[in-house]
Amino acid sequence: MAEAAKSGATPLEGDGKRILMILGTPKTDSLCHALGEAYAQGARREGHVVRQLKLGELQFDPVLRGGYDHNQNLEPDLLEAQRQIHWAEHLVFVYPVWWGGLPALLKGFFDRVFLPGFAFRYRDHGRSQLWDKLLTGRTADLLVTLDTPRWYFRWIYGAPAHRQMVRTILGFCGIKTQRLTEFSPVRPSSEAQRQNWLRHAEQLGGRA
């Protein structure tokens, strides 16, 4: 089992919020990692307990090969991820937008982990399309990096990655997005701009 599932845990848990940070990039070192660390520092300063899952370090097949029609045994790292999600009161997703959407590794994580019976359950009422949201009660912050300018991503592209995360993944399972913060555009940004972003991420952690 990857040690990433346990990294960042505070030995003694007090009255602070239980926070699970999921770094949804296959890279092992990136702006996303720096933003995540800054957020965690701000949250810990306020007495919250922060644990991390670094998807790039976990061992699992990101392809849901048979859909929901076939059972695909969860790898140990994914079983641990489910335990950590149940433990958490607040989730923090830190990831880049690639091709207007989520990185394949993050999408594969959702496909494999947010399964019927864990994240949601369809109600068996004939043709009813109703479902139970099994992760209700949790909140989420999204820290998202983009090369595309924010206005262009929102007004020209329609912000597809944001809609997918907030509405059709997290919202579908009962997780309420608290804040979605964009850090953009990354590619032409200066060192001073990135330092400002890190300070902002730290402030967000302090308000978790």
Automatic annotation (TrEMBL):
Flavodoxin-like fold domain ranges (all copies): 17-202
Species annotation: Zestomonas carbonaria
Family statement: Belongs to the NAD(P)H dehydrogenase (quinone) family.
InterPro entries named among the record's database cross-references: Flavodoxin_fold, Flavoprotein-like_sf, NAD(P)H_dehydrogenase_qn
SUPFAM superfamilies from the UniProt entry: Flavoproteins
Swiss-Prot/TrEMBL keywords: Oxidoreductase
GO cellular component: cytosol
Source taxon at top rank: Bacteria
Protein's recorded name: Flavodoxin-like fold domain-containing protein
GO molecular function per UniProt: NAD(P)H dehydrogenase (quinone) activity
Pfam families from the UniProt entry: Flavodoxin_2
Oxidoreductase as UniProt keyword: yes
TM ranges: none
